[in-house]
Amino acid sequence: MNGAALAVAMTAAVYLLVVIAPGLLVGYASGIRGWLLAAAAAPLTYGVIGIYGPLVPLIGLRWNVLTLLAVSVLSAAIAYGLGRLTRTERRPQSLDWPRSRHWMLAGAVLVATGVGLLAMGRASGFTAIPQWWDASFHANAIRFIADSGNSSPAALKAVNATASNNFFYPNAYHVLDATVQQLGGWPIPQVMDVSNGFQAGLFSLSIAVMVARTTRMPALAAASAILACAFTQFPYDTLTWGPLFPFTAGVALIPALLALLGRAMDAPSPGTVLTTAIAGVGLTAVHPSVTVAAVIPAAFFLAQRWITRRRVPLADLRTLLLIAVVGGLTGVFQVLGTLSAAGGGGSAWKADWTAWQAVEEFTTGSRSIGLPEVWLAGLCAVGVIGLFLLRSTRPLLWWLVGGAVFAVLFVLDSSSEAPWVRAVTQPWWNDSWRLDAIGAMGSVVLAAVGLVTIGRLLSRVTPRLTSVAAVGLVALLVIIATRGLYVNRNTERLAQAFSDGPVVSHTMEAGMEELARLAPAGSLVMNDPFDGSPWMWSLAGAHPVFGHALILPGDAVPAGPQRMLLFNRFNMLDTDRAVQAAVRDLNIRYVFVSQGQIVGAKPSPIPGLKGLDQVRSLTPVWRNSQTAVYAVSSQIVDG
Question: Per-residue pLDDT for 402 more than 90?
């Protein structure tokens, strides 16, 4: 193993430790055991970050791995103490399966994890820079937290909204990745690529445990686990489009949250209430729209539960109230921050399809690649029949109906620009990619039902095959037919985000590294928000004036009048006293321009960076084929 591969392996090991260990500690202290504990670990870790991340800076502490360890131990001690005080009887939680069934489920989750990592590794090498719009913000947010130790969601205004009075960006995803980076000092793109590479595996574990807990069917749980890595719509599309890194991390854990909710409803106790509430805070701290999305299948879960029982037990209502209260109290910073920053979120995406085209795109999964997921679509079709043939799958109807709701929202958003459609899809930015991803979670389970149905029918016509062996044989045939669970297809999709440019190429990165050697600590670098230069912060440690691309005119106010003045008139530095004052106030000593270009952004350069060679107060000091660095006259900066 060479040095680069060893570094990636170490990053992966540390990431798993950071994302799993704190949640395992809290969950175990709360009385959670078995597969549910394994699935709950990641959302509980995010929950711990969501609770204490905003609090740590307020008491004058820096966020690092020791902070995470301390607050995790504190949370575990509180959970354990509550359990001891109430002396609640713990009911058995383990699945009553033969050991071989547990190994089968573990193997399925490991296969899905391996496929997800293989796709990401082949696409990015776990070191490449993601090229699309949002990636620079996420990278700079991680760098800011890792360097400053400031884990407050409001502090991320430093990236690109320094003049905002009510900025709040849920940052649990960034805090966790920053903790990994602090431990190893690895490049930010490597940390993000490894983190994102594990999302298919975390989703596989999450949805498998939800299915297992709901149906007690090991074959169906294993089938769900193994198919979770195959659908392009999630997580591969959302790791490319945007890219929607925190959203993907949150959606992957929705099934785990609902598995915890089911446990809390079946066996209410301080531990189950507390862990469900903390996991809810965790998803909110990763991305609030994910929590909103989780409410929809949760509502159908409760409806099916109450309809089946033909009553609404007061104990259920009491448990729900307790979860809401505990979640509101422990997640008060997340709730208040999200509300204070609310009011935006919607985007006017153009509806390009007819309703029938949107239905076809959803059912075939052909949107991003252009080719249908034939075998998965076929399994889903069989799954519809299987719901009638296999009574044991019907406890999952609530999950399938929840997925169908998002499928309908996807069709509406893709085919209509009606105001009411915009209103109902606004929590997800009117973004059909997000709706498609959430809806695909229902497709995963429906396809798994189809796989198990074929296996059961095969065992009936071939008596020598047990039902589990038949399901395993069908799963193997699906893997072969899809050429490794569509790993090539999904690698191709991810690779679209990891080319050498157009946002940042290796040549541009070399320019950023040279800039970092020139720019003194504490100074800012004037840059174009649309040419890839915001990456200078996360890649080289140089601090840009614009840390992310602007969406104008909305971002002009949070960016602040001085920065927008420079955006429009920096090239008037020789004569404009207001520009000179802004340069002094912001301590801008260098200018960086490149040939990079964010897809979908206005063509660079911005107005204020045109014709820089004619500005007498700027001196070219370094240049390569794609970048140029100018020094600002000391007479301007120092007054």
Answer: yes
Distance CA 521, CA 401 (A): 55
The arithmetic mean of pLDDT across residues 419-428, rounded, is 93
Tokens of 618: 């700027």
Strands (E), 125-222: none
Length of the chain equals 639
**pLDDT exceeds cutoff 60 at 588:** yes
Residue 600 confidence (pLDDT): 66
Burial class (CB in 10 A: 0-12, 13-18, 19+), 343: exposed
CB atoms inside a 10 Å sphere around CB 165: 9
SS3 at position 630: strand
Give the count of beta carbons closer than 10 Å to the beta carbon of residue 351. 19
Q: What are the φ and ψ backbone dihedral angles of 99, each rounded to 5 degrees?
A: -60, -35
> What mean pLDDT do residues 91-119 have?
90
* H/E segment holding residue 391: none
**Residues with Cβ within 8 Å of residue 197, at least 6 apart in sequence:** 12, 116, 117, 119, 120, 121, 124, 126
457 against 83, higher pLDDT:
457
SS3 232: helix
How confident is the model at residue 597, as a pLDDT? 86
pLDDT at 558 (0 to 100): 92
Biggest distance spanned by C-alpha atoms of the chain: 90
Query: Please, are residues 565 and 546 in contact by the beta-carbon 8 Å criterion?
Result: no
Has residue 342 got a pLDDT over 80?
Answer: no
Between the two ends of the chain, the Cα-to-Cα distance in Å is: 54
Q: What is the pLDDT of residue 196?
A: 97
Closest alpha carbon to 117 in 26, 11, 246 = 11
Burial 571-595 (b: 16+ CB within 10 A, else e): bbbeeeeebbebbeebebbbbbbbb
CA distance 448 to 455: 11
- CB atoms under 10 Å from CB of 13, counted, come to 12
Whether 94 has a pLDDT exceeding 80, the answer reads no
Pick the closest to residue 583 from 618, 540, 553, 535 (CA basis): 618
- Region of residue 429 (phi > 0: left; psi between -120 and 50: alpha; otherwise: beta): left
